[in-house]
Amino acid sequence: MDSKNLRSLMRQRRQSLTRRQQQTASAGLAVQLCRLPEFRYRKNIAFYLANDGEIDPQFAMGIADRAGKHCYLPVLHPLKQNRLHFVRHTSGDCLEANRYGILQPPLRGNRIASMHRLDLILLPLVAFDARGNRLGMGKGFYDRTLSNRAAHTRLIGLAHSCQETDNIARQSWDIPLDAIVTECNTIHIRPEKG
Ligand SMILES: Nc1nc2c(c(=O)[nH]1)N(C=O)[C@@H](CNc1ccc(C(=O)N[C@@H](CCC(=O)O)C(=O)O)cc1)CN2
Ligand SMILES: Nc1ncnc2c1ncn2[C@@H]1O[C@H](COP(=O)(O)OP(=O)(O)OP(=O)(O)O)[C@@H](O)[C@H]1O
Predict the structure, then answer these.
(1) What range does the record give for the signal peptide (predicted)?
(2) Which domains does the chain have, with CATH numbers?
(3) Alpha-carbon distances of 54 from 19, 38, 47, 114, 127, rounded to whole Å
(4) Phi-psi region of 108 (alpha: psi -120 to 50; beta: other; left: phi over 0)
């Protein structure tokens, strides 16, 4: 299946999950994340606000917020095409819809994190395979933005387990993930040689 068809199939799958399935998945995801040292011991963490049936990291974000961690959300870059800023967000802060209808914090210079500040970035996946290859929304926002990541920044993809597929072709611009976490397990990805 080509990536366009796979993306559309997996988006349909996640969109058709019930509210109850989504809530259970969000709680399961928080349990999985809380077991990971990368989540427990890192302070500056980028999340996202679930959209389009994505697995919802809201429980995990609440836990991080209450633990005194700094949480960030993606905001579309106003000038550079298909790039993101990560902006500090605390519960109750105002949000506004971007051009895709996804809520994001307003851009205020002093809330924008420079890439080296981020210790962990949690990114939403549309599809993934067991080797850690991923498919996103298809505009390359994360790939472009993460090409400037700092060496210490860990990258963890989040998805429902039903978004796993056999084999996703790796593209030259794909940024390798350190792990993929679903509502029921964590896949640690070992870098491939060569
Ligand atoms: N929750 C969440 N926030 C996120 C992302 C994401 O994947 N999930 N992004 C990760 O990149 C960025 C937004 N990226 C997007 C990329 C493509 C489409 C998209 O294709 N949307 C429409 C069609 C296009 C349109 O309306 O103009 C669609 O739903 O088919 C939406 C968002 C930033 N924020
Ligand atoms: N670092 C980059 N520099 C320039 N173009 C890029 C870069 N990364 C990705 N692209 C372009 O972005 C487009 C979308 O890439 P791709 O289909 O891999 O997106 P995706 O991984 O599904 O989305 P995302 O990264 O937002 O999750 C491709 O046409 C690709 O050429």
Answers:
(1) none
(2) 3-188 (3.40.50.10420)
(3) 12, 21, 12, 26, 11
(4) beta
Q: Please work out, in degrees rounded to the nearest 5, the angle formed at the alpha carbon of residue 52 by the alpha carbons of 171 and 120.
A: 60
Token pair in block for residue 112? 């924008």
CA distance 178 to 26: 20
pTM metric for this prediction = 0.96
Ligand 2 centre to CA of 68 (Å) is 33
Task: Give the ipTM of the model, two decimals please.
Answer: 0.94
> In this predicted structure, what is the pLDDT of residue 193?
64
The tokens of 14 are what?
């996640």
Residue 121's nearest CA partner among 159, 153, 83, 77 is: 153
- Residue 147 CA, closest ligand 2 atom number: 1
Ligand 1 site: residues with CB under 6 angstroms? 48-51, 54, 74, 84, 100, 102, 124, 136-137, 139, 141-142
